[in-house]
Amino acid sequence: MEEGVRILHVGGPDERSRALADAAGVADVVSVADGAAVTDVLADRDIDCIACEDADGLDAVAVLRRVRDTYPAIPFVLYASNGSEELAADAVSADVTDYVRAADTTLAELADALVSESRRYRAEQDVALLNDLARNVYERITEAFVTVDREWRVTYVNQEAEALLEVTADRVVGENVWEVFPEAIGSTFYTECNRAIATQTPVTFDGAFDPLGKHFEVRAYPSEEGLSIHFQHAASGESTRGDHLLALTSVLSYDLADSIESARAALTATRATNPDAEGLGDVEAALDRMEDLINHSITLANEEDYSTTHSTG
């Protein structure tokens, strides 16, 4: 039994729906005769795949177009009783997932295709959810935050970083950070970030960011995937910097840690049901970077607190 897979069968007799459920090994095949009812079913129920028959009285391509207007990603398999090249071309132009002819395909083969597409779709949905969870964790960081991979390609920019760097994520994500800001090459920012990657050691520094004529306080945390860079306008005085670190650490260690734990639980559940889903490694790497950030920030904040306490007597 294929646990949890939900298939919508459109246009065929109830007997075929039951046979399809048996062949696919699924408990939940919803059957509707009227193509106009499809979007209502999709709005009311979670469906993983649609099997729509093109037969007398039902225009499967019209149903497909109606579905794609609202649900562009859900798998749609068109099952043609009397297929033709024209019908196949129309289905492809309307973004059909798969086109099969009854004359060439057994019910068991159709069932296998539906289950396969359902698994793929659910895996994609799970990965999208995990990415949303990871993105939510990132966005809750209240200072400017940028991540780059080991080739210095920008992989993430939060809103605070967009404002300070005077860029948009759409413009810079995927680009080499030193090509976006070539004036920074040779600066303290460039030297320290490269040192962090080379030594796999976190770095903390104040430095001018020449491309924008701004002065930043920067903390950069390396990992196997690249570098997480946190920065803000340079503060006036050590106490201000220390207070900011302690406040940030409080948020990271108590608030974000819960979100990361929830995301890891969701990741584990997804791996159990869809171990081959694309993108799971990227999600795990993002969560690993966040945990490294928490640990490094706690260490750094404690060092700042110790230094400030002992220097003031």
UniProtKB/TrEMBL annotation:
What Pfam families does the record point to? PAS_4
Q: Spell out the Gene3D superfamilies in the cross-references.
A: 3.40.50.2300, PAS domain (3.30.450.20)
By what name is this protein known?
PAS domain-containing protein
What start and end residues bound the annotated signal peptide? none
Q: Which organism is it from?
A: Halarchaeum grantii
Listed InterPro entries: CheY-like_superfamily, PAS, PAS-like_dom_sf, PAS_4
Query: What top-level branch of life does the organism fall under?
Result: Archaea
Domain PAS span(s) in chain numbering: 132-198
